[in-house]
Amino acid sequence: MTPDEHHPQRPATAQDGAGPAGPRRPADRGRTDVTDHDRARDRRLLLWLWRTEARPLAPLLFLALFLMALDGATMGAFSLLIQPLFDDVLIASDRAALFWVAAAVAGVFVLRAVLIILHKPLTTWLSERIVAGLQYRLLAHLMRLDHRFFHDHPPGLLIDRVRGDTRQLGDAFIKLAPALARDMVKVVALLGVTLWIDWRWTLSVLLVVPLLILPMVGLQRWVRRMERRSRETSAAASNRLDEVFHGIYTIQRNGLEDRESTRYRATVKRFILAQMRAKLGAAGIVSLVELVSAVAFVLVVVIGAGQIVGGERTVGEFMAFFTAFALLTQPLRKLSALAGTLQIILAGLERVHALMQVPPRITQPAPPLAPLPDAGAAGVRFEDVHFAYGTEPVLRGFTMEAAPGKVTALVGPSGAGKSTVFTLLARLADPQAGRVLIGGQDIRRLDLAGLRNMISVVAQDSALFDESLRDNILLGAEGVSEAQLRAALEAAHVAEFLDQLPEGLETRVGPRGSALSGGQRQRVAIARAILRDRPILLLDEATSALDARSERLVQAALERLSAGRTTLVIAHRLATVRGADRIVVMERGLVVEEGTHEALIARDGAYARLHAMQFGGGETPGAV
After folding, report:
1. What are phi and psi of 464, to 5 degrees?
2. Is 81 contained in some domain?
3. CA distance readout (Å), 360 to 49, 163, 430
4. 3-state DSSP call for residue 591?
5. Using an 8 Å Cβ cutoff, are 109 and 341 in contact?
6. Residue 396 three-state SS
């Protein structure tokens, strides 16, 4: 089904600074304080991620964390071995100590190598599983949303949400998990070593830690805001690319290559700026750790050297302490960056969660359900239907009836609401007032899957997927015999070009069916509808933009397909609907005339004027 011919201005979306989560709050534009509300929201987001994706993997997650914790503890053991290395081996020249110290050091590094081989692939697998689970869940949710949602949210933006935001979560998880286990345990182990050697030296190091707290809090909030802005501009860039590639022929025909390149470049510049600011904040956190480490180092050297000269401490003790302190700076840097990593995770998670909270408006009705009408009684009726996109009304008290087994055509100027009729009939959206009935039953009381299973659609640009021709015709249908498939191919005139394809039915049709001509794509859509064999057939500009030969073939196939079905046709060219049993003329969302072609011409009203525009010498392409 093609988009509705009525296109009100799309409201702001995430690419404009707003999205499913709503517009950016004032807090996102300069505030650095962390409120209780912010912390509670972050806890809810992380708890949601744990419950939905991480908890089923809990045993493997804890195993990975345990292995990483052991990896971190090995550094504490290594720093302890430095004291006997200096005092017993290098200074006291104890050969016996040489062998056991060397063996112990080698054992520590062998153990660490084994642990790394075990936990790194496991962590990566867990990350990919969590990301894939989020993507599956998000895609499944989006596919249940109604026509209005996709009217407001372009494909490029949604692609970036499903792929970009979730992928960023996975990348951050790879950094977060080691920091939570290996680096945290490493810090505890190394601090334990320093306390065991000399608590006063350790206290001199810890005294400078408070210098980190206030500036780090501010930098964390900065990173969060910049990362959110980065994701918004990334979505805008994805949407721009999606529009360029969808409209590539229009761009080339009108010489718009430079214009579109400039627009894309401007979007990417905003993305780069936001990324640079986010990385600057993350780098600032690490730089703070380096500065504080330098101050602590000076204090340790001054205090420790004085005690060694005075004979209070040995060189081995000082070197063990110094080694532990030096090794401590690396996990501290990673843990300080953890704050920025967590903000990246929360920014992406916030956007994914916001989409997941968009409620489906079209849902399965509560039982008891109305019975599905019989195929022979599947007449369609619209009763005083009102429908609007936002504040823009499309249908304004629309009333119409399509009799079972008959062809009913909808004609009228662009924006009259013709395609909206199809949208409402398939419950891709619900009217704000009035009723839509099939076989006398309100479709809002029918089983949703059963309702849609009653309808076949052949549209102006029927969607084809980059799969084989066979897959595109069957669309997952099971139990279709080769004889039934061959009959559908013959009836839809697909068999006429089948031998021209390199692999016949197994030929891939390319993205959006690009390997086929327009007429061939339409005939594939008709073959689908023939195989579906549904009681209601919707034809939406099914022969537009075809050459004369293709139109004749497609029209003949459509006439066979329409026989015995309740058929509704949207057509701009009146020549294609002259033989319809009933023609409904629409203007501004209302029915202004009904009747056969001959009766409407004789009435000399709206239909006669449309007919004169096309056939009376004043044809206006696309006006009907």
Report:
1. -115, 150
2. yes
3. 21, 21, 12
4. strand
5. no
6. strand
564 lies in some domain: no
Domain that holds residue 153: 44-356
Q: Provide the edge-to-edge strand list for the sheet that holds 441-442.
A: 392-402, 380-389, 433-438, 441-442
Q: Is the pLDDT assigned to residue 74 strictly greater than 80?
A: yes
* The pLDDT value given to residue 11: 38
Residue 265 neighbours by CB under 8 Å, 6+ apart: none
DSSP string, 212-261: HHHHHHHHHHHHHHHHHHHHHHHHHHHHHHHHHHHTHHHHHHTT-HHHHH
**Number of domains composing the chain:** 1
Which is nearest to 586 in space by CA: 404, 455, 424, 420?
420
pLDDT attached to residue 8: 39
Cis peptide before 621 (omega within 30 of 0): no
Answer yes or no: is 16 within a domain: no
- What's the pLDDT score for residue 249? 61
Q: How far apart are CA 82 and CA 579, in angstroms?
A: 96
Of the pLDDT bands very low, low, confident and very high (cuts 50, 70, 90), residue 92 is confident
Q: Is 406 exposed, middle or buried (0-12, 13-18, 19+ CB in 10 A)?
A: middle
E strand residue ranges, 347-391? 380-389
pLDDT surpasses 90 at 434: yes
The pLDDT confidence band at residue 3, using thresholds 50, 70 and 90, is: very low
**348 pLDDT above the threshold of 70:** yes
Check whether 385 has a pLDDT greater than 90: yes
Pairing relationship of beta strands 590-595 and 441-442 according to DSSP bridges: unpaired
The answer as to whether 129 is a domain residue is: yes
User: For 460-603, where are the alpha helices, taking DSSP H only?
Assistant: 469-474, 482-491, 495-498, 518-532, 548-562, 597-603
CA 561 from chain center: how many Å? 37
- The CA distance from 586 to 425, in Å, is 16
Tokens found for residue 202:
């350790």
Tell me how far apart the 2 most distant CA atoms of the chain are, in Å: 119
C-beta atoms surrounding 375 within 10 Å: 17
Is residue 340 very low, low, confident or very high in pLDDT (cuts 50, 70, 90)? low
Domain with residue 324: its CATH number is 1.20.1560.10
Q: Rounded to an integer, what distance in angstroms lies between the CA atom of residue 553 and that of residue 264?
A: 42
pLDDT at residue 31, rounded to an integer: 44
